[in-house]
Amino acid sequence: MPPPAVILCRPQLGENIGAAARAMMNFGLADLRLVAPRDGWPNPAAEAMAAGATDILANASIYQTAKEAVADLTHVWATTARQRYMLKPAHTPRHAAQAMRAAATGGEAAGVLFGPERTGLENDEVALADAILAIPASPRSSSLNLAQAVLVTGYEWFQAADASPAEEVREGRTRPATKEELEGFFGHLIGELDECGFLRNRQHRPIMVRNIRNMFLRAGLFEQEVRTLRGIVTCLVSGRKPLPPPGEER
Fold first, then answer.
1. Which residues span the domain enclosing 210?
2. Fewer CB within a 10 Å sphere, N or C end of the chain?
3. How many CA atoms lie within 13 A of 111 on its CB side?
4. Are 46 and 81 in contact (CB under 8 A)?
5. Closest C-alpha to 179, from 88, 102, 108
6. pTM, to two decimals
7. Is there a contact between 52 and 22 (Cβ–Cβ < 8 Å)?
8. DSSP tally for the chain: helices H, then strands E
């Protein structure tokens, strides 16, 4: 059963990357993805803190953007302790781990986005996710260290090994859309909305784009549905075509 990817967005300290890798090793996680690490990569400080998890560091994938890092994934959670004013489901690590196990039984790849130590994830990065992963903590101190957040998430994944929900039975041969396929649809749709003037209010455009993305992400689209939606957009843009005579193929 493939474990979820751990995606560290713009991590600042090599020590925290190394400690996160050690936490991953403790709980059977191996897919470490780094998005634009501040101090570059490789980082000697990370190796010093990894304590045996150097293989995870050596095999870490490097990306320039979070969008690139999640492109091959089907399900993504974004960790945040702040209110983002987005209509997304919010899961505890335990709930998210069970959902990840259910997805993994069907061969669907999952991942968790973690933000940089000082500021957390940007809104556009949170918008890439299907759901929020919020770790319950004291209201007086709700922000966790980066490696601590990875450890809690890994622990719940490991503990959920014997509590996986039954595999969902689906009709047909389609599969859940990957983030890359969804991004292709979003790019297509947003491009046409820009072209027709729907997003002409430059001040409100970023919020409107995030709201549109979130509407479709909540739908849990399948690959066939994404292709259908792209066909719909293309048809609407190209204009109405006359119907063929009765008896002829459309």
1. 179-238
2. C
3. 27
4. no
5. 108
6. 0.78
7. yes
8. 10, 7
